[in-house]
Amino acid sequence: MMHSRKASLIIMGIVHSLLFIMLSLLYYDFVLDDAFITYRYAKNLANNHGLVWNISEKPVEGYTSFLWVIINAAGIRLSVDPVVCSKVVAVAAGLAIIWILVAANRNIPWWVSFILVGAVSLSPAFAFLTMQGMETTLTALLLLISGWLSMAVVSNPGKLNISLWYMAALLSLLSRPDTIPFNAGILLGLIILFVLNRDHKTLRIIFLAGVAFTLISSLYMIWRYNYFGHLFPNPFYIKFNTQIDWLDIDISLNYISEFAKTILLPYIIFTVILRLKQPPDIRQISNIIPILSGCILFSGYLLFARPGMQAFLWRFIFPVFPAFLLALIYYLGNSVITLPKFLSNREWQISVLLLFAVWPLHLIPLTLQEKEKRTQADRVIVGKALAGIPATIFITETGAVPYYSECRAVDMLGITSEEITHKGLSLNTLTVLNPDLIMVFQKSGEYLPNNYPTRLTNQYMLDSEFIAVAAINKSKESYHYYFVRRRSEFFDEIVKRLRNINTVKYGDLGKLIKEKRMPRL
User: Fold this and answer.
1) Assigned domain for 370 exists
2) Are both 283 and 258 inside the same structural domain?
């Protein structure tokens, strides 16, 4: 019987792995523009320039994942393109998540197991986020391992399990600083459980191991502060910038509620259905309290972080989803599943299986829409076209263009500029930067410089004699507009390269200006 169960789990793992890989192929040619920020840091590190954005300038922490930079820098040193390296590592992390969830389904009927693991393997959002080139799936794996080890600590408290959990928490921190609330929630849940059980021995081990963890993480934070001058990356401060009107708390509430309704709710309902006749048992819930505590604390953090920036497909909250699924799987696996009468029929079981299994697939149109909307293809082409020109660029989307062109670059939001991040964009900043090229992104519709940085940039371009030289189509009616300073020593070369690219779609500058869809310069 045990061998049969093990064989069925292996078969299930293979099926889910194949489904995940097939779904991921829909997005194999997509890379988020932000991923190229990490790639540029990784390339500079691999080429012995240090963790810097602009070579020979003061270090600025514009990336969000130290671990992701190191992984891609190692790939570059081995002559592996970071686009390929990041996708391979992310897919491997996604497969590891699937197999961990499969392994956790030891005491659950196969069709229940298929649905819960399918929440990941059949999720277009998960596949899309895996292929975007960012650290999202690796972070999800580390949080899943953290959740798994927290349950091991509850079941079998001891030095080994507690130490392993702290190691997972440390790796999570290196992967993304915003994992701190999740692991802090787990730690809080563990402490509450052992306080209620009056297990002073385990509490003492948790405290002593915590001292070691704090020491190691403090050394890392001290190094970061000495190297970059700030405790957290620039994107962290930007998220908490209350002056950015599109990072509103109402957006955060909607962001979390949409995630709960679209991603979590079906599996919560599914779990409730299977437990309708069984009242909750605190002993069955105790092992997953740390994970649930971590999920709650992480959601609370997002309310204040206001994830309005690049928050598509819930990519900032999705890393906690596999850990939440693990909690549901453990809860069902350690309780009696009583099926409603209508589910005693095999045909009904198959119907319910199909209903819940295909639920995630309804997001395929949305993910394909996001793929087209957020394509970086035009900027990859432009970046390669500008390669070799030692120009300075000021840009709204700082990813593929700076990476491939290797130009000195600063972005409007301040991801790669501490001065802009902490003091805001100023005319003096632009004057000192003295850019040769300015790139502005504008969505379809009338061009409205309705925020201070955009108005300031427009005024600077007028005062500094910038000329509109190209409008390159991004997707549908969205364009990237390129303006070159007339007195730049690179003016002729930049204009020639930007106006002679055969593989992009150009917009009519005169028509776009007449339609008020770009600045009139």
Assistant:
1) no
2) yes
